[in-house]
Design goal:
The structure is a homodimer of 296-residue chains.
Chain A (H helix, E strand, L loop, with lengths): L5 H13 L2 H8 L3 H15 L4 E4 L2 E4 L1 H27 L5 E7 L4 H14 L3 E7 L13 E5 L8 E9 L1 E6 H7 L13 E4 L7 H9 L5 E5 L2 H9 L4 E5 H4 L5 E5 L7 E8 H4 L2 H14 L7
Chain A binds a DNA duplex (30 and 30 nucleotides) through helix 3.
DNA sequence: CAATTGATGTGCATTTTTGCAATTGCCGTT
DNA sequence: AACGGCAATTGCAAAAATGCACATCAATTG
C-alpha cells in the first residue's frame, strides 16, 4: 500500500488545493520544508508525480487532482465526524444500554419505557439475566448492581435504593398449612429457595443457615420463577417488598428485616459517566425511584 | 479541527477494526506504545473516548464505531486511488494536452484526430495561438517548438522535423507583376511579412535585412493570415513548403533555403516524459511525420 | 535593466516521535 | 488457590521528523 501515511495525503491535499507549498505549510502550521518532504516521500512511494514544480508553486497533475478529490471527501467526512462526536456528548441519542439483575426488571422496565418516550432519538437496550454484563468492556452504559458497593477501578458507583425483602406465602398455602407464628414455628413448612448454593444474597444465606435443607422443597435459579412458585402456593419464600406489598393473594409471613435486604448501586464507567446521555438517564432514574414502594 | 493528524485516525481505525492495540501495531508495523500514544492524543484532542480499555483489548465506543465507518471509507478510497494512479502511468486515458505554434496546426490536427480515434478513452486538447503554453506549469503534456533547441531544465527535447519555407506568390500576382528572376530583381515588388519586429524567425530576419521596409506592404501577426494574404495576391511572402507545394494557385518565387527553415523540437516535461500516454503519442507523431511533405 | 518579491530547495541543530524492555494487571487454566 | 499467558502501560535511549537559516530561481516592478 502506497498510502501508508495519511498525514502525507493530508499535506498533499492542501498543496493541491492551494497551489503552493508555502500556503499549504501556512495552513497546516508547519514549515514549508516539511511539506516538500512529505510530497517527495509520497511521490517516491507512489512512483508517480502528483505535482509539477515550478517557480510559482505546485500544480497538481492528473494524479494530484484525483488525490485532491479523494482527500477532499475525507476531509469533509472527518469534519462531520468531529461534529458528531463532539455533539454526541451533549445529546441524548443513539443507544443507551442498561443492565441489572433480573429481579429489578419489574421496577426498571417502566422507567426505561418512559425514558425512551421522553427521548425519541434514543434506542434502549436492557440486558439482564444469563450473565454479568461488564461496564469495562463497553457492554453497558449503566448498571444497577446489588450488594456491597462495587469498587472496580474506572467505575463510578453511587448509592441507589435499598431493596427490602420479606417472607411471603400465598393465601392458598396459608389456608392449607397454617400461619407460622414466628421463626420457631417453621417446622413442617415448605420453602422456596435459590438453586445457587454459593449465592451471596443475604436473604439466601439466612435461609441456608436457618431453614433445614429438607424443608426447601423448591429451588430455582431465576428470581422470577421463585416469585411464581411462591404465588402458586409451593411454599414460603423471600419476595421483594415492592412486589408483594399490594398483592392480596400473598400473605406476609415475616416482615422485612434490614439484614435480608440489599443496597443497590448505580454504576457507570468513568469514561461515560460525564456524558449527557448517562447523566440525563441517571437523573431520570433517581427521580422515578422516589415513587418506588421499595420500603413496603 | 480535532482531526489534524490523519495518521492517528488511521491508527484508531485499525484498533477499532482489530480490537486490540497489539494487533493494530502489528498491522501498522509500529510498536504497541506508538498506537497507544496515538489513541491517547486523538481522544485528548477530541475530548471524547473512542475506546473502552480493558484487559482483553480495546473496544470501540459509539464514537469509535463511527470513526471506524468513516475511516473504512477513506481506506477504501485511498486504495482505489493508488490503483488508479499506478495504472494511469501505463494507460492512454484521460487528457492529452498538446501545444504548438499556430503554423503547425494544419499538420498536427489530422494526426491528433487519428490519435484520438486510436484511443477512445482519451480526450485531446490542442492549445495554440495567443500565448506560449508552458510545460513546467503543467499546461501541456507535449509541446512542438520551433527554432533552437529548447534547453529549459526539467524539459526533455528531441529533434523533430525540419520545416522548409520558400518564397511564394499567387499565380494572379505573378501575372500582374511579373516573375522576379532572383533576389536582385525584387525592385518594385510587394511583400507580405510578419508584424512582429523582433521575431526571431530566420526567414523574417532575412526579409528584414534584404527587403526594404517600404516594399513590405502587408504585415500580419498570424501565420495563417500571411498565407491568406499571399494566396489573395497581395504580394510575395514566405510560406511553409508543405503548405504551398501542391497548390496550383501558388508560384514558387525562390526555392527553400536551409537558412530560412527552422528545426522543430518535441518537448515534454521530464515528469511526464516516461508515461505511457506521452510515449505512445510521441511514437505515433513521429511515425505520422514520416509522411509529411516537409521538404517540399 | 536592476532590484525586489515570493516561491522552492538543502544542510544542520533541535524537538518530537518512536522503539525497546521491563512492569503491571487481568483472565483462564491447572 | 496458584500459575501461565496475553495485552496494556511506562521510563529511557535511539531514530526520525521538524524547524531554521540560507541559497536559488523566476517573475514582476520601478
Amino acid at each position: 500500500m502506497a498510502f501508508d501515511d495519511w498525514d502525507e495525503v493530508r499535506t498533499a491535499y492542501h498543496v493541491a488545493r492551494l497551489g503552493t507549498v508555502s500556503a499549504a505549510a501556512d495552513v497546516l502550521g508547519v514549515h514549508h520544508a516539511t511539506v516538500i518532504r512529505h510530497i517527495d516521500a509520497l511521490e517516491g512511494r507512489l512512483g508517480a508525480k502528483l505535482f509539477q514544480r515550478h517557480a510559482r508553486g505546485y500544480t497538481a497533475t492528473e494524479a494530484g487532482q484525483d488525490l485532491l478529490l479523494v482527500a477532499q471527501a475525507t476531509q469533509d467526512q472527518l469534519s462531520q465526524l468531529a461534529g458528531r462526536i463532539k455533539g454526541r456528548g451533549n445529546e441524548v441519542t443513539g443507544e443507551l444500554v442498561v443492565t441489572s439483575v433480573t429481579s429489578m426488571s419489574e421496577l426498571l422496565t417502566p422507567v426505561l419505557a418512559d425514558f425512551r418516550l421522553a427521548h425519541p432519538e434514543l434506542t434502549v437496550r436492557f440486558l439482564t439475566g444469563s450473565r454479568l454484563f461488564r461496564l469495562e468492556y463497553g457492554e453497558a452504559h449503566v448498571a444497577i448492581r446489588a450488594g456491597a458497593k462495587p469498587n472496580e477501578p474506572d467505575n463510578v458507583a453511587q448509592r441507589f435504593v435499598d431493596l427490602c425483602v420479606g417472607l411471603y406465602a400465598s393465601r392458598d398455602y396459608v389456608e392449607r398449612m397454617g400461619m407460622p407464628k414466628g421463626p420457631d414455628d417453621f417446622a413442617g413448612h415448605s420453602f422456596v429457595g435459590l438453586d445457587d448454593e454459593k449465592s451471596r444474597a443475604p436473604f439466601q444465606r439466612w435461609m441456608h443457615e436457618n431453614i433445614p435443607a429438607e424443608q426447601i422443597v423448591f429451588k430455582t435459579n431465576a428470581d422470577i420463577s421463585r416469585a411464581h412458585a411462591v404465588r402458586a402456593g409451593v411454599g414460603i419464600g423471600f419476595l421483594a417488598g415492592y412486589s408483594a406489598h399490594h398483592d392480596d393473594d400473598l400473605v406476609q409471613i415475616m416482615p422485612p428485616r434490614a439484614e435480608w435486604g440489599a443496597s443497590t448501586w448505580l454504576v457507570t464507567h468513568v469514561d461515560l459517566h460525564r456524558t449527557a446521555k448517562v447523566q440525563t438517564f441517571l437523573r431520570f432514574l433517581k427521580q422515578a425511584a422516589k415513587d418506588w414502594p421499595v420500603h413496603g
